[in-house]
Amino acid sequence: MSASLAQEQSLPVVAVVGPTGSGKSELTLQLAEHFDGEAINADSMQFYRGMDIGTAKLPLAERRGIPHHLMDFLSVREDTTVAAFQTMAREAIADIRSRGKLPILVGGSGLYVRAAIDVLEFPGTDSSIRARLEAELADAGIETLAARLSLVDPVSAARVSDGKRVVRALEVFELTGRPFSSFMPERDYLSPTVQIGLNGNRAELHDRLASRVHTMVEQGLQDEVRELIPEGLREGRTAQKALGYQQFLRVIDGESTVTQASEETIVATRQFARRQLTWFRADPRVHWLDWGQQDLRAAAIALVSETKAAASA
User: Fold this and answer.
1) Runs of H (alpha helix) within the chain
2) What pTM value is reported for the model?
3) Are 58 and 146 part of one and the same domain?
4) CA 155 vs CA 121, 150, 152, 245: distances in Å
5) Which residues are documented as binding site for ATP?
6) Which residues contribute to the annotated binding site for substrate?
C-alpha cells in the first residue's frame, strides 16, 4: 500500500449531527480549521439555490475559506433522492480524502447522514407505481395508504407519518416484494467514522429557535420566498414544504399574516427539532456533547483525534 493511500484510508469521516439550532455549523468550522477539513452538507433543504435565509445556510463570507460541498445544486423545481445523495456524498468524501483533507458531514437530515456513512442499500424506483400511489394519496388520503402499509410493513408504518414516505414504502414493497424496513439493516459504518451530536437544555433550544425565526423574518424571509416563486417554488414538491417557506407563501397569498406565519414557523421548527433528536438518539454510536459546555471544542477535537488514531493503527 502506498503512503498516500494509507494516509487516505486513515482519515475517518466526521459527522456533526443534532437538532436545528444546536450550533452544528460553528462546530464544523472549528473542526475543519483544526484538522484541515472540508464540510459536506447533509441538510436536505440547503441543497436548494436561493433558499438561504429560511434554511439558515451559512453565508459564503462566514465559511472562513472552508469548502462546503453539496450546497446549492438544485433549483426549487427539482427533487433528489436519498440514493442519489448517497452517491454524491461518497464521491465528495473520497475526493476530500484523496487530497489529504478530513471530510466533515454536517446536517440534521438523519436518513441522509446514514446514507453517507453506513452500509446501506437503497431500492430502485418506478415512476408509474409512484404516480399511481400519489394519485391514490390525493384521492383517498393518508389514512387509507397508511392502513395498507401497516399490513405489509408494520415496522415502516410505525416509523413514517407523512404521505411522501408512506408512498415510498408502498412503492418499494410493490417493486421488490420486500418491506421497506428490510433495507434499513443494523447500523454498520462503511469506514471509520465518528458522529458528534450536539444537544442541550430544551428551553434554551426553544428560545434559540424562536430567536432564529424572528431573525430570518427581519432579514427578509418573505422577500426570499416571493423571489423564489418565479423560479418554481410552488411547483417544487419538496422545496415549497420547507419550514418557513410554506408559511410565508400563505402570507404572500393573503391567507395569513407575518405574525401568524412567524409563530407557525416557530412551532413547526420546534416539532422538527424534536423529531431530529428522536432520530439521532436512536443511534447508540452518537457521542453527545452539550452545546453550552465550556470545553465543547476541545471535547470534539478529542473525539476526532481518538477516531483518527484508531483508524491509522
Assistant:
1) 3-9, 24-35, 82-98, 110-117, 127-140, 142-152, 154-159, 163-176, 202-219, 221-228, 245-252, 258-281, 296-312
2) 0.86
3) no
4) 17, 8, 9, 31
5) 18-25
6) 20-25
The last residue of one of the domains, among 148, 166, 183, is 183
> Are 10 and 69 within one domain?
yes
CA dist., res. 10 & res. 102, Å (int): 10
Binding residues are 18-25
Task: Tell me the residue type at 103.
Answer: P
Q: Element (H or E) spanning 289, and its range?
A: strand 287-290
β pairing state of 102-106 and 68-69: unpaired
Residue with cell 427581519: 218
Q: What is Dmax (Cα atoms) for the chain?
A: 65
Q: Report the CATH number that the domain containing residue 149 is assigned in CATH.
A: 1.10.20.140
Strand partners of residue 194: 14
Long-range pairs for 301-306 at CB < 8 Å and ≥24 separation? 301/31, 301/34, 301/35, 303/194, 303/196, 304/12, 304/14, 304/31, 304/35, 304/102, 304/194, 304/196, 306/194
Asked whether residue 38 falls in the same domain as residue 111, the answer is: yes
Q: What is the mean pLDDT of each run of 10 residues along the chain (313 residues)?
A: 52 96 97 98 97 97 97 96 94 97 96 94 87 93 93 90 89 92 84 97 96 98 98 94 96 98 98 95 97 96 95 84
Q: How many CB atoms are located within 10 Å of the residue 225 CB?
A: 26
Give Cβ neighbours of residue 11 (< 8 Å, ≥ 6 apart): 97, 100, 101, 102, 103, 308, 311
The reply to whether 137 and 218 lie within a common domain is: no
